[in-house]
Specification:
Helix content is about 60%, strand content about 0%. It is built from 19 helices and no strands. Helix 11 (about 185-200) packs across helix 12 (about 205-210). The longest helix has 18 residues, at about 230-245.
Length: about 350
């Protein structure tokens, strides 16, 4: 599909150009004639991609997009963008114009309303009103999370609506208070969510989820096999534990942190050996030849905030996909430690971990 090919960055650039809404909608008009028995996912197809790209724009701008989409018969784009307006009555105005079959888009339009803090839409459901309200609050919390979401994944895997709702409220409070940076990296938010999940649900429910759920993000060197959520949390916990040591705040290597898997425990000697080298400034370029060691050392250099050493180590690594992906990863992380140009409101709920490049950023 053309929208998927364009991507959110290009869609945003086109729409922010004068007259861009008419140009883009005419290009997308063939989508309106495609047979469709169900609505596309909220943030995976035309309407979701467009609404995510411009969710930070004022309602007046969004309304122009809605009307341009309606003129070309692009009902899903019109529905999702109208649902993303800050004015909750914008959806009713869309319905009154009778542009299409709104029932086809109620589920995902309601999720889009959650991104801007508006009440959910009433729709037929096997879930009770209280359950729907809780799910909507969880969706609203993803609009505050930095980079990528973990809570909805947890909800979908466990079905523990009440517990995940409580976690979402607490996590949102942490972000709104500034204890966790909304435009920072995902690390602090994911660690907080993980510990909340262990507290409310216990390891017996959480550990199987982490073991079976693949990680779809862009982070980390993938040396072999499928990268799972368990691998992500292992690394987050290990780096958090070793950071005081590599920065010289403590003199002794800490024990491995609670909650890590047996897999990472078996690799603990290599982590601590690399931590000592990072701490002492004795990292050799030859360590980059092994993908797993390359990944460990770059994580620890970043945790030490030794940016010159991190840059030099990546530059000296063997040419290939691992070096490129690691360079991109840490460029994004470093941006979020500074001006956070790549931050985008609602990113965890709408962009699913993919960066958006804003050519309009001043």
């Amino acid at each position: 599909m053309l929208v998927t090919t364009l991507g959110t960055s290009t869609i945003r650039a086109l729409l922010l150009n004068e007259g861009g809404e008419d140009t883009l909608m005419k290009r997308l008009a063939p989508i309106a004639t495609e047979p469709r028995s169900k609505a596309p996912g909220a943030f995976t197809n035309a309407g979701g991609a467009v609404s995510a790209a411009i969710i930070d724009q004022p309602d007046e701008f969004k309304e122009r997009i809605v009307l341009a989409a309606e003129a070309q018969g692009l009902v899903d784009i019109a529905a999702y963008v109208s649902a993303s307006e800050n004015n909750p009555q914008a959806w009713n105005s869309f319905l009154k114009r009778g542009a299409g079959k709104p029932s086809l888009y109620l589920l995902y339009a309601s999720q889009m309303r959650a991104m801007v803090g508006n009440p959910r839409l009433e729709r037929p459901s096997v879930q009770s009103a209280l359950q729907q309200d809780a799910i909507h609050r969880i969706q609203m919390s993803t609009a505050f999370e930095p980079e990528q979401d973990f809570l909805l994944n947890l909800l979908n895997q466990t079905g523990a609506i009440g517990s995940v709702d409580r976690m979402a409220r607490i996590l949102t409070q942490q972000i709104q208070s500034g204890a966790i940076r909304r435009n920072g990296t995902m690390d602090a938010a994911w660690l907080f969510a993980y510990r909340s999940a262990v507290y409310f649900l216990g390891h017996s429910q959480i550990d199987p989820v982490l073991d079976r759920l693949p990680y779809s993000g862009r982070r980390y060197v993938r040396s072999s096999g499928i990268f799972m959520m368990r691998d992500v949390f292992d690394r987050l916990l290990i780096v958090e534990a070793l950071q005081p040591y590599v920065t010289g705040k403590v003199s002794d290597v800490p024990p491995w942190p609670a909650g890590v898997s047996d897999k990472i425990k078996a690799d603990w000697p290599r982590w601590t050996e690399m931590a000592a080298k990072v701490r002492d400034g004795t990292v050799s370029p030859t360590l980059a030849a092994d993908p797993a060691t390359f990944g460990i050392v770059t994580e620890l250099l970043f945790a030490k905030t030794d940016q010159p050493a991190l840059r030099a180590f990546v530059e000296q690594a063997p040419a290939g996909q691992a070096r490129v992906s690691v360079a991109n990863d840490f460029a994004i992380r470093l941006d979020r430690a500074c001006a956070a140009y790549l931050y985008h409101p609602t990113e965890a709920g709408t962009l699913q971990g993919q960066p958006i490049f804003k050519f309009d950023t001043q």
